[in-house]
Predict the structure.
Amino acid sequence: MPPNNACCADGPECYSTQVDVERAMGVYHACGGSEGSLTISTDAGHYLCEFSFYQSMHCGRGPVVFVHVPPVNQPFPFEQLQELYHKLISAIVEVTLGSSIPAAIAPAVAAPVARPKVGLAVFIRCPSRPGCILLGKRISAHSDGNVNGKDTYAPPGGHLEMHESFEECAAREVLEETGLTIHNIRYGTVANATVRELQYHYVTVFMVADSESGCEAVNAEPHKCEGWGWYEWASPDFPTRLFTALEVVRSQGFDPIAFWCVKLCL
């Protein structure tokens, strides 16, 4: 604990940033920054946040701004956060230096480059549903706001967490979305799914797995899915409006039922 419970024993009681924050916000909005995405506050927060801000102004030799960054996807996806802070930093530099971002530091805050995302889906079989896989009809679009996938049929799945194996991700996503416990989880195939006009590009790993007898899936995320059902893979009545990655897998001729048969007979 610092002496006298102060951030700095020899420092003043209060510091104010040298940056014209109001003007920077004006430049931010003029550059296309969305309304309501940023707010100005006179309180950096308690404990470490306030201490860091105070020490930066006390020890620093230039303008200081403290910015709280929200968790990814709460509410902004990573790519939107990149764009938002690129515009904010550009506005602060312009207001403080009276010019655009210097060439020496521009690469560090350059606009984000769009890159494919990695997803994972799981083909599940059940002893009491021979020849079938579990599909749900999606209600929601992607977490990044891309409308591709809305109102399509897809198997359970989602995104890999940091340092998570394919098998761990498959088991977690299936349990979270359907309440089912799966075993014999193994790699099936991969789909490179793109929709250029929607700026959509996902590389989706498809796993195959077995579920217990009965296989009564629950709709654990009703805000994302209308419900789950078992659909015969080779049936002419198999849904036609499919999630893009699933559509790619079917067009490639991959057969999860035949794949399972081969694996189980070995």
Q: What stands out?
A: Residues 262-266 have pLDDT under 50 and may be disordered. The two ends are 65 Å apart (CA to CA).
